[in-house]
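Researcher: Go.
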Amino acid sequence: MQTGSMEYHKLHQIHAEGNFVLTVCEGKFGKGEATSFYDLFRIAEDKIVEHWDVIETIAPQSEWKNTNGKF
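Model: Structure:
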């Protein structure tokens, strides 16, 4: 488990269907490494009632397996 600050720098996508919302962002986490944040929220009665996330360090471009990138 990483610890430290979490910084959101750019919102790439927002997807919503029914009572679920997915956000795809990038920023920095822990030791300041470039990181992707995928957050899934379930909304009920205008409030977030559940939240799931995936947080992953973004590899340097020299290590990418393709040119698509993370976003």
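Model: The longest strand covers residues 5-17.
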